[in-house]
Amino acid sequence: MIEAHRGLTEGVQNILDALKERATNQKVALAINKIDRIKAENLLALAQELNTAYPFVETFMISAERGYGVDKLRAWLAGELPVGPWLYPEDQIADLPMRIIAAEITREKLTLRLHEELPYQLTVETEKWEDRPDGSTRIDQIIYVARDGHKGIVLGHKGETVKAVGLAARVDLSEFLDRPVHLFLQVKVRPNWLEEPDRYSEMGLDFKDGD
């Protein structure tokens, strides 16, 4: 899925290159989101450019915010997935460790706060989790960015951006965990984090050299 108004960015090109290198028989569909942000002729040109770069089996033009085209994408995904038994209890909301869920909540707040300024090469990791005797939880997280300029974007003027992100994430975490949460965020530059297997394992992904 890419954002229509951003077009064929360096990050998208890297994904396309990786798909070509894998050369698997898996079906790959393209979803162009935020189609209401660009003109129709530019949207069609972008779709053609992307399909020329990679042979997608389907192309969906959607607006997730407005719901346009989402039903078609959902129906296609449902049709491609095999029918099978429930793998988890009905009341289990996630199969991920709480450390990863907490990191995703903070990353969501970064996306909502930064919008178009958000650097793609960004990740959040939960470095420390401490359940305290008083019933509260202390969570220490690191926001990794790939460039010095990205660090300034995340921090904001006098740290205002990262403070706002931390506050919003703490509120959601407290509600999600049903307990007081003390959230501490750091922003660090790590230029090659995308190539480090440990970074992917923190996100619950299996990364192998050469993949």
Architecture overview:
The chain is α/β, with parallel strands linked by helices. The chain has two domains: 2-80, Rossmann fold (3-Layer(aba) Sandwich), CATH 3.40.50.300; 98-202, K homology (KH) domain (GMP Synthetase, Chain A, domain 3), CATH 3.30.300.20. It contains seven helices and six strands, in the order βαβαβααββααβα. The strands form two sheets. Strands 1-2-3 form a three-stranded parallel β-sheet, with helices on both faces. A three-stranded mixed β-sheet has the order 4-5-6. The radius of gyration is 19 Å and the shape is globular. The two termini are 21 Å apart.
CATH superfamily of the largest domain: K homology (KH) domain
User: How many strand units?
Assistant: 6
Q: Order of strands across the widest beta sheet?
A: 1-2-3
Specify the helix fraction band: 40-55%
- Tell me the number of helical segments per DSSP (H or I, 4 or more residues long): 7
**Mean pLDDT reading:** 85
The shape is globular
Question: Which segments are poorly predicted (pLDDT under 50) over 5 or more consecutive residues?
Answer: none
Give me the CATH fold name of the largest domain: GMP Synthetase, Chain A, domain 3
